[in-house]
Structure to design on (685 residues):
């Protein structure tokens, strides 16, 4: 049962010089988690919800990277103040490693992927919210806090973590104005459209129904924009209070078009304050006892997708180091960030929700040089740099970092750039403190769609959450005991496992139901103007395009399964072809484009007689029976375990997942186009 507490103020003794950081903590709720359930040797957990009051001092070296911090209102002592709500789940009465889970669009992500269950209402409370209890059984303290503002209103009872950041002001406290771009599509013909990003908010026009705003449309990202006459469209209020705005068009919006809305907005948020808030909250817990518990023995930060890219930006800007010169976190696990991380999250009028895919949003700051953890050279500019150039603490130390992408990020998020030169000509070895992994045959998240819509193929259900669990424990051992984790495993240019799309298509088997795309994402160099390069202030919106970064994809084997990287059990003992790409259905209007997050799966024919010309070897030719298949799966699981990518506690789960799919393929109606056979009878979590 939740126990409300009297607010507790925990002050930091401020000595000269006074550091920025958490000045006090309000604990607003404290009580047992999961009704006091014991999680093995870790025992019971408690839940603490609070508010961190944070002060940032403009002008210090540690805060110099925060765009527009010097333009935020200050208190009498010259500091910029704001607050951030946080939520903590921790073992009762024991010290542990703390994992800070960067929330994704206000929502807790780590519990869904690592523990297997997304907590109801973003408010983990019950034993069911703990999923299989993995993180709790291993004794981690879990911490989540608000860092971004652009989160759309959610359902009744939901508790997203949303930051109210400082607002940048001009001289005399006047509003700052600037151009804002919003690109959007519609899945079906509609008279209205929301123009904010995915589950997000955007800056709204400074002038209601701005008469000077422009709406354009085009069929592909690199095509010429066609202006829609201003008399044919207008702005509408949000569909729900505090939600994103809408726009209506005479004749309606149509699928197959990229629409772009540009107008003048005002009052930019100091978005980088959210990153500094994470830094300072972790710095506080690193050094101070909290509510009867000692500081954690180690602090890790964990992010998925947008949240992983945010960690990359913190490292790039040196916002992993506090004003005292200490590292805010000892280790970082960055899951499916693609090549992103060196742009976005910390500029004027930035929209953290946005990121490019093959189809959309190429004009938002997301993927920019440098991409590699070790120095690499951009031949076009002559610049040599790494993502970690500013990330060292005062003693020259760096956090220990794991970066993990799936096959999908190689097709749709520039992932090859993490380990290659920007021209795609050479491999770049990760820095000594960094490991890079590629989960072959997996998609952005484990596939859960039972329908092909709005794509052409069934999704890939390759389970990369299992190696993720093993690597997370490996990261803890690396930071606490300096025990080496598995070596980096990613496709490479020098051994032929990383190739051009043209080479991929030539190698991919023909004459079955998967046809590879002709393109992968090749993000252009974006030119927002000289003020953006110097100060994070865009003066050219939309930006001009420079040359594209050269991106590559994993080479396929004779079955169409990716080579190199971490070869998942599903690829070591395959039941079909697993790809990182899926194609959009023709009725979406973008049949040339790949799905943003989804891959594909096509089972092998069961027998040669069922092949219908399919060149891939049949299941009966590969495995004499179920027992033979199981023996090979168990052997592959043993190799994964020995390599550090599978835990002993997860071996049976991995084997059973593969056996279950074998059984369902053998029982499926081969003529059916349904994807239901990929899943157990109960709905996926």
């Amino acid at each position: 049962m939740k126990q409300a507490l009297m607010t507790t103020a925990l002050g930091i003794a401020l000595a000269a010089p006074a550091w920025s950081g958490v000045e006090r903590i309000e604990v607003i709720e404290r009580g047992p988690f999961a009704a006091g359930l014991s999680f093995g040797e870790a025992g019971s957990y408690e839940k603490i919800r609070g508010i961190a009051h944070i002060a940032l001092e403009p002008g210090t070296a540690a805060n110099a990277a925060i765009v527009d911090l010097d333009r935020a209102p200050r208190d009498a002592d010259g500091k910029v103040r704001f607050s951030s709500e946080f939520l903590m789940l921790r073992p009762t009465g024991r010290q542990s490693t703390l994992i800070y889970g960067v929330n994704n669009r206000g929502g807790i992500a780590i519990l869904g992927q690592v523990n297997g269950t997304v907590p109801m209402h973003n408010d983990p409370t019950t034993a069911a919210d703990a999923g299989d209890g993995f993180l709790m059984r291993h004794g981690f303290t879990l911490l989540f806090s608000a860092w971004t503002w652009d989160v759309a209103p959610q359902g009744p009872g939901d508790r997203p973590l949303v930051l109210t950041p400082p607002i940048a002001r001009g001289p005399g406290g006047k509003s700052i104005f600037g151009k804002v771009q919003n690109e959007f599509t519609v899945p079906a013909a509609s008279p209205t459209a929301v123009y904010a990003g995915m589950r997000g908010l955007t800056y709204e026009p400074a002038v209601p129904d701005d008469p000077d705003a422009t709406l354009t449309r085009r069929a592909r990202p690199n095509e010429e924009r066609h202006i829609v006459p201003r008399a044919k469209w207008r702005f509408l209020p949000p569909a729900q209070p505090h939600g994103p705005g809408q726009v209506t068009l005479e004749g309606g919006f149509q699928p197959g078009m990229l629409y772009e809305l540009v107008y003048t907005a005002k009052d930019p948020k100091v978005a980088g304050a959210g990153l500094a808030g994470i830094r300072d909250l972790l710095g506080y817990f690193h050094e101070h006892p909290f509510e009867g518990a000692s500081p954690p023995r180690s602090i890790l930060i964990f992010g998925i997708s947008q949240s992983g890219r945010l960690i990359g930006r913190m490292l790039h800007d040196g916002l992993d180091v506090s004003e005292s010169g200490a590292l805010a976190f000892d280790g970082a696990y960055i899951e499916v960030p693609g090549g992103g991380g060196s742009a976005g999250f910390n500029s004027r009028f930035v929209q953290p929700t946005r990121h490019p895919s093959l189809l959309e949003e190429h004009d938002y700051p997301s993927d920019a040089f440098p991409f590699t953890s070790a120095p690499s050279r951009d031949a076009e500019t002559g610049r040599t740099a790494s993502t970690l150039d500013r990330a060292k603490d005062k003693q020259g130390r760096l956090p220990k970092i794991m970066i993990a992408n799936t096959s999908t990020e190689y097709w749709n998020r520039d992932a090859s750039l993490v380990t290659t030169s920007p021209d795609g000509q050479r491999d770049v070895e990760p820095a000594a403190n960094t490991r890079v992994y590629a989960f072959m045959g997996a998609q952005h998240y484990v596939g859960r769609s039972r329908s092909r819509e709005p794509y052409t193929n069934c999704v890939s259900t390759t389970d990369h959450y299992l190696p993720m669990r093993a690597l997370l424990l490996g990261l803890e051992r690396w930071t606490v005991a300096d025990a080496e984790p598995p070596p980096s495993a990613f496709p490479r240019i020098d051994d032929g496992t990383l190739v051009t799309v043209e080479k991929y298509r030539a190698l991919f088997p023909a004459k079955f139901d998967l046809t590879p795309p002709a393109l992968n994402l090749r993000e252009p160099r974006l030119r927002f103007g000289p003020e953006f390069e110097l100060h994070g202030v865009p003066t050219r919106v939309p930006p001009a395009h420079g040359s594209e970064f050269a991106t590559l994809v994993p080479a396929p084997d004779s079955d169409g399964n990716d080579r190199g990287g971490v070869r998942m059990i599903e690829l070591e003992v395959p039941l079909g072809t697993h790809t990182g790409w899926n194609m959009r259905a023709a009725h979406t209007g973008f049949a040339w484009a790949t799905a943003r997050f989804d891959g594909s799966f096509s089972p092998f024919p069961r027998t040669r007689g069922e092949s219908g010309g399919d060149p891939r070897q049949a299941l009966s030719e590969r495995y004499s029976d179920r027992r033979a298949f199981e023996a090979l799966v168990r052997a592959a699981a043993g190799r994964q375990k020995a390599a550090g990518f599978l835990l002993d506690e997860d071996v049976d789960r991995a084997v059973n997942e593969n056996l279950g799919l074998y059984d369902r393929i053998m029982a499926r109606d081969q003529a059916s186009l349904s994807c239901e056979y990929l899943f157990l009878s109960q709905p996926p979590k």
Q: What stands out?
A: Residues 1-168+268-296 form one domain. The radius of gyration is 25 Å.
